[in-house]
Task: structure prediction
Amino acid sequence: MKTRRHFPRAWGLAALLCAALLGVTHPGAARAQGFSNLDFEAAVVVPADPDFGLLDWALAAPGWGHSAGADIVYYGATHVGLMPWFLLVGSDRPPLTPLAGSYSMRFASGHASNDPAAPWIHSYLAQSGLVPADALSLTLLATGPLGVSINGVTAPLHALGGAVYAVDLAGYAGAQIELRLINNSAQLFDAVTVDNIAFSTSAVPEPAAWLLLMLGGSGLAAWQRRRQRGQRA
Result:
């Protein structure tokens, strides 16, 4: 079970308010069939492994497929070269920290080979499964140039504050889909980090509602800061 959160204080309250509006308190808010390891906590890391720092894909990200050009996942290691890469961010491997829990997945696009003239590959994570019949949206934590597609069609990504995003699933409830999380950047090392993907039984809120939530979260944070200063005085 995830107990740690690494949200900066400035937007953590707004993120929690957005999640509350969406009805997402845990990944089981709407049960999906076929999807697994949506929070990346199923990673198997063996510190005694002689190849520690390079993880087999099936151990680092079970349940997930990926773009061509990267069949291993880095862990506590540094990537070199021009090709796409995937990195399992671990809570025991600073300076990077997971967006939530013990692990997050970070990935960058790159060339098909270490030749700078080679074709550019937009790296992605992919998984197929059945959308819950009562699901109206998908939420996730993410940073970086992320894109989302469903069955090959780009799905608009709605920012809900901080690292919280949502995707409207109208028309997909109860359907079999392929979900892709894509790094849209054309720059080397411009990485995306993702975590806590969850199906929600609530619709994506209208932009006006997001603004009210953000203002409410900012006001609450300011009130807490004033209160703390008053207690120290």
